[in-house]
């Protein structure tokens, strides 16, 4: 993983790349949170699909970033994992640390 981090740090020196990287971070945070929540409960995508009524293929698309979830869909996923969906706004200075 350090090779990736080294490469990423090098690429982030380019202002255009940095802007694009920062622009996709909210989406990446949602994907990461969904996957971490599912995995923390030892659930497969198929099991989560059964709990939520969301097709496993759609859960896969959400996790690989080819589909953007609606708020309603995120609530269904949270309910299926026995969790509450929490969305917050964080000042930019804190978010970058």
What is the secondary structure topology, with strand pairs?
Blueprint: H1 2-11, H2 15-40, H3 45-52, H4 56-64, H5 71-80, H6 92-95
Helix pairs in contact: 3-4, 3-5
Distance N to C terminus: 21 Å
CATH homologous superfamily identity: lambda repressor-like DNA-binding domains
Structural class: mainly alpha
Largest sheet: none
- CATH topology annotation: 434 Repressor (Amino-terminal Domain)
* Topology as a string of helices (H) and strands (E): HHHHHH
* Global Rg: 16 Å
* Average pLDDT reading: 92
Please tell me the total number of domains.
1
The CATH architecture assignment turns out to be Orthogonal Bundle
Shape: elongated
Spans of 5+ residues with little confidence (pLDDT < 50)?
Answer: none
CATH class call: Mainly Alpha
The helix count comes to 6
Classify the helix fraction into a percent range: 55-70%
Strand content: under 5%
How many β-strands, per DSSP?
Answer: 0
